[in-house]
Amino acid sequence: MLNSVDLSFNFFSGEIPIAIRNLSHLTSLNLENNILSGPIPDLKLPKLRYLNVSFNNLNGSVPFSLQSFSNDSFIGNMQLCGPPLPQCSAILPSPSPSFPLSPLPLLPNDHQKNSSKKLTIGVIIAIMVGGLALVFLLAIILLICILKRKDSESGELTKRKVSSVGRDEKREEYSSGIQEAERNKLCFFDSCSYNFDLDDLLRASAEVLGKGSYGTAYKAVLEDGTTVVVKRLKEVVAGKKEFEQQMEIIGRVGHHPNILPVRAYYSKG
């Protein structure tokens, strides 16, 4: 989840996008020293603890939901008023010609042309929101896959226990050993030609690719040189039947340019 956004000193122009209010877990927002204009939107971010929109070209009154922040959060905006700044008058005075609306230095014409080509702050926010949504979707799919595998193994274990009733103790110990070996097997999709098990993965050299709120991704190189990416989830909350259904759907999905194909899955009962 995105907790902090710092886009200061980037010469962004335009208005502050109202889409920022969709980042409900945001605790810090720093937009100081840009060329932002227009009024400040009523963000209504309940977890926001730090705000800085100083030294821009913002105007109008400070929204009620942001009036609890200090004067330093809004200074450098000559046409901005209302608590914690001075009260708004009926007619805002024209800015003195001897002072610019923003303390930012005037840019040469070439620099202004180059800065106009940069991404606006709205596009940056949209990219971040879209990226978070994609990560969340992938995590949910992997979570469902693990749960389906876990429920499948639970059902198989129950069947083995029922079929072993009436056998002698030696036979039960032998059967138990077979079941333990089965738990180390990965469930591969029909289209996958790989042939390795959990022990092979545990012996492989591993490199952490990234960590998220749902688990950690590793790059594993097997003893035969095969390279795979392993996603280990922290928690599983879905049922067995739902997990199996989702895995069947994933197995039928073709290649996607932005998503690695799922080859196998494993869940410890």
Automatic annotation (TrEMBL):
Record-annotated Protein kinase domain positions: 203-269
Cellular component GO terms, alphabetical: plasma membrane
Coiled-coil intervals: none
Location of this chain's protein in the cell: Cell membrane
Entry keywords, A to Z: ATP-binding, Leucine-rich repeat, Membrane, Nucleotide-binding, Phosphoprotein, Receptor, Repeat, Signal, Transmembrane, Transmembrane helix
Transmembrane segment boundaries: 119-147
InterPro entries: At_inactive_RLKs, Kinase-like_dom_sf, Leu-rich_rpt, LRR_dom_sf, Prot_kinase_dom, Protein_kinase_ATP_BS
Domain of life: Eukaryota
Membrane topology: Single-pass membrane protein
A GO MF label: protein kinase activity
Residues annotated as binding ATP: K240
A matching Pfam family: LRR_1
Family affiliation: Belongs to the protein kinase superfamily.
Name this protein carries in UniProt: Protein kinase domain-containing protein
